[in-house]
Amino acid sequence: MSIKPEVVVMGASAGAIEAITEILSGLRERTGAPIVIVVHMPSAKDTHLATLLQNRCSRPIIEVEDKQPLERGHVYLAPPDYHVLVEDDTSLALSSEEPVNYSRPSIDVLFESAADVFSQLILGIILTGANQDGAKGLREILDVGGKALIQEPTEAHCRAMPDAAIATCPDARVMSLREISQYLNERI
């Protein structure tokens, strides 16, 4: 029997809103593993992304605050201009350290810190995007025994991020957005 993840981390950039909406709107309401999402957004922009996604998702969607505890069944969004890290006590922390891969928040920063804490009990997901942020972090998730999913590049709004993740993590599973949503419903 497959081990269920205790946390899901997800990253996206160009085309993110549509991709994340499709995945989250397909999730059944229940108390599954928490989902932490990094979306590349302009630093000064008040996105209202949590409100937009909440209208399409039955799970509570929260913009991360510093020292926020993870709760089952919740979805957490990185705020603009802050990295999100998972602390040893599994709470979420915010950092204003330098951008990574030209991005703050950075997908790699979240994925690497979560892999350090959750080890094989983590699922990482890379979606559409225009750079290679997340590929290195996804590799780290696989290296500690976690699971990795990548959006099918041919259906991505921008395929650079999925292509980079596939090149770095050829052992990850490549799926459509609908398949990712089904996978989450079955395994978290």
TrEMBL record:
E.C. no: 3.1.1.61
Domain of life: Bacteria
Class in the EC hierarchy, top level: hydrolase
Positions of the CheB-type methylesterase domain: 1-188
Keyword terms: Chemotaxis, Hydrolase
Record-linked InterPro entries: CheB_C, Sig_transdc_resp-reg_Me-estase
Catalytic function, reaction form: [protein]-L-glutamate 5-O-methyl ester + H2O = L-glutamyl-[protein] + methanol + H(+)
Record bears the keyword Coiled coil: no
Coiled coil: none
GO molecular function terms noted in the UniProt entry: phosphorelay response regulator activity; protein-glutamate methylesterase activity
Keyword Cytoplasm: no
GO cellular component, as recorded: cytoplasm
GO biological process: chemotaxis
Stored PROSITE patterns: CHEB
Residues at the catalytic site: S13, H40, D133
Name under which the protein is recorded: protein-glutamate methylesterase
